[in-house]
UniProtKB/TrEMBL annotation:
Protein name (record): High-affinity zinc uptake system protein ZnuA
Presence of keyword Transmembrane: no
Signal sequence interval, chain numbering: 1-18
Chain intervals with Basic and acidic residues compositional bias: 115-197
Family to which the UniProt record says this protein belongs: Belongs to the bacterial solute-binding protein 9 family.
Top-level taxon: Bacteria
Residue numbers spanned by region Disordered: 109-199
Amino acid sequence: MRYIISFLLASTALPALAEVPRVVTDVPPVHAIAAQVMGDLGQPELLLDRGANAHSYQMRPSQAASLADAGLVIWIGPELTPWMERALNGLSPDVPRLALLASEGTFRQNYGETGGHDHAHEAEGHDHGHAEEKAAGKHEGHDHAEHDHDHAQEAKAEDHGHDHDHAGHDHAEHDHAGHDHAGHDHADHGDHAHSGLDPHAWLDPANAKVWVGAIAAELARLDPENAATYQANAAAAQARIDALDAELSALLTPVAGQPFVVYHDAYGYFASHYGLNVAGTVALGDASSPGAARLRELSQTVAAEDGLCLFPEAQHDPALVVQMADGTTARIGAALDPEGSTIEPGPDAYDALMRALATNIVACLEG
């Protein structure tokens, strides 16, 4: 009996183990890299339904409730998912959130900034040691209540020699944690989607590496007892991304510079990183329906190029692409899926998304 009592007393003296944060993510590529960082410790939740459009999604009440119970919300930012911003505005400010596009070290570019030089190599040369620094937990001295705002200012200051004032859309003024958006209503996202900041930044693998580090650092802050596991998982994930990048570089180098047309303006980071030539897009960056003038201009481009590849997109009706190719020498490639919304969610989804983009583009351009 004496031993039982002693054991019970010793047990009550032990500190309570911190729970692994319940992580909620917005889109498949974010879910995938978060899953790699969490590993066996937990499974992040994905809000975007299979096959849904990230730009115009509407959450179900059950998903909104799930978001309110999150221990950490990881998302790209309001530039991609304005519906998510509206939901976050209604949450308690105590709910931790991480806007990846505003994370320190992220390479960012405007819509239309593609080709001509390799942005990713500039980004790597600039300071992608941030990823490893974050993974090692060296993320001290900043207030996570203003986490996204602080990083937006830092990232803007480190903007790789580019002018990212985004036609008056100054992201240094965005308090992504406090949601004071300086009067800018992201419900009007489509009005600047053709000229502002391109949020499809996961298509640059250097950014994916940075985000792995940012996620690991935030999880380690919230769950310090598992910090070493998050750091080890992050290092493995970054090595995995490096291997994927090398594989895709070898695959895409033979078709670098060959023009092709995509459905919506989502491929700028991918094209910049791998030296690809996006000659035109059917729709703007928010995938809204194109106007007649835009379609006429693009039709002229398609007719003028011999054997141009046109790529429909998984979430959109291919009718416009088919119509544009009709009566020309253009070829229609496989439907692309830049958001990975048709891919099985999980830690392998990022690799699958990037590999599918590369192989489908190469198949048409070399066909």
